[in-house]
Write a structure and sequence with these properties.
The protein is mainly alpha-helical. Helix content is about 75%, strand content about 0%. The protein is globular, with a radius of gyration of 11 Å.
Length: about 60
């Protein structure tokens, strides 16, 4: 995904607002945008990263 694309930025802003992401999650999302093919892929990557982070803290 191209983070400089206006439609991508709109989707990211919507995702941030809906999920009430904090600063750390937003930074993580920005990094994942670069390797994600589309918004659904990004959502899956975010879920995977949050799952991975949760299990590391146990």
């Amino acid at each position: 995904m191209n983070i400089n694309d206006k439609s991508v930025l709109e989707k990211l802003n919507k995702l941030i607002a809906i999920n009430r992401l904090n600063k750390t999650q937003i930074l993580q999302m920005v990094n994942l945008v670069l390797i994600s093919n589309n918004i659904n892929d990004l959502k899956d990557n975010l879920k995977w990263e949050s799952y991975k982070s949760y299990n590391q803290n146990i």
